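Sanity check

After download, print the first record. It should look like this:
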Amino acid sequence: MNTETIDVLVIGRSCLDNIAVIARFPAEDQKVPLEFRLAEGGGQGGTASCCIARLGGIVAYVGKLGDDDEGRFCLQRLAQFGVATDFIEVVPGGRTPVACVLVTAASGRRTIIYERNSLPRIQLDAQLVNLAACARIALLDPEVTYLGGPLKAAVGGIKIVYDCERWRPGIEDIMAAADYFIPSAEFLESDKLNFGDMPFNRKIAKLNAMVAGRLIVTRGASGAYYADGEKLYRVAPPAVRAVDTIGAGDNFHAAFALALKKGFELPRAVKFSVAVASLSCREYGGRNGVPEMAEALRVADKLEEKALDT
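Expected structure tokens:
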């Protein structure tokens, strides 16, 4: 891979997703029939890389997989989406993590039971620094939260987009290091933030004061919110028949990182990301529904932002 042509560097998790589609979610100690099942590559970093490639971007993906059947499947799926696998380490004797995903057919909502990653942590070495210096845009997923500060210090001028899943060790450091801090709405309910029962918009304003970079918050079917100075805006999603939301967040972050590389201003970058994330829900598995660039731009250009009170 010619590293001089990289658009976005993605660092983070890959796993195998075993997806089961069911008519309704069962209560504890109940049985429900399986409608159908499929296997797909998963993980925030892996899915985001596939999204960037589908949109026509050149992505360098740094991750680790085990030398097992699950790892080989993940590598195959990445390659099928046009993601270069040059920088993925296959760990001898390593075990590729697996996730079990239950998707409720009527709503498209998913419940994920994930296996903790036992593979060695990704380290900030000379290769990673060089890739970051070439890309200038790095998307970090939650498993590599610890890399944000060191990467920022090692590569002057790099822009870091952080996929914030939940409160975890090192989160305050990445709040300071990330140029774009992008949590889901669930993060605002963390006990560590102690926001209590204040209105949702006020929670965003409070969190905005805690991060050094720009704050964007995703909220599922409500779209995305972003702070711009003292103002708060919401971009509602397009009308899409969602069958599976498993990759929506990963695809939002991916689209946002690529939008930055293309020079989109913040409002357009958020609209583009909302469009890509929404369209990705059209197919099962989180990857096959990702649009190509032309469709994503057509949909994004029809979206509008609305100013909100805080």
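If your output differs, re-run the checksum step. Summary of this record's structure: The chain has a mean pLDDT of 95.
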